[in-house]
User: What shape does this take?
Amino acid sequence: MSTSRRVQQERCYVLHQRPFRDSSQILDVFSVDHGKLSLVARGSRGSKSRLAGILRPFQPLRLSWSIKSELGTLVGAEIDTRPRALLGDALMAGYYMNELLLYLLHRHDAQPEVFAAYEETLAALAKHDDVAAILRHFEIELLRLLGYALALDTEAGSDRALAPDAHYEFRPDAGAVRVERTDGPQVYAGVVLNAIARQEFDDAETLRAAGRLLKNVLHYHLDGRELKTRKVLIDLHRGRLPASDQNRV
Assistant: This one.
């Protein structure tokens, strides 16, 4: 970007904040029409700044900024609607979604459908306690919208439907590859993969399998980068869930 542009009253969410100089901060924000971008919020950490209580994650905002390089400058911020009341696991799930967007979205690439999916998922987390199922829905939709849709209905490299009683190894770069063995970290029965494709997460076995599969797929698309928030979610549940259930988070 070589010329300065000004954006007014854009719908946004703050994904991440980090201190900048004495009283300012840099915001990584997700906007509906301009995608992910970084903004300097000057003086926003000062004790008298009105922005201190506004620039918070999960708060729907209307932001205005000027930008002529990769880093813009915040010039206005208003609360758009009431904030999402996320507590406990739902709060950590929200931070997990923010981390996914930070790493998977390209800068200045508008993704209005992803924005809508993010808002819908925040609303679901605020109303329901089935955090794991809500996250699996979001992960699958996010992958689809970013062009990484899961092929869970057919065998890799063909249009043959998965056999319910056969077993498949799911490979992120290929899809479901039929195998003779029946166990392994990424081996699933065809019937389970079909259930994940239908997002039938009321079934505990399907939900656990979906957590295992999506963790592997996202790890692949994140180039092996470990998500801090997912580790926190797993650690939180380690004392509450049996080991076999820890892939639900």
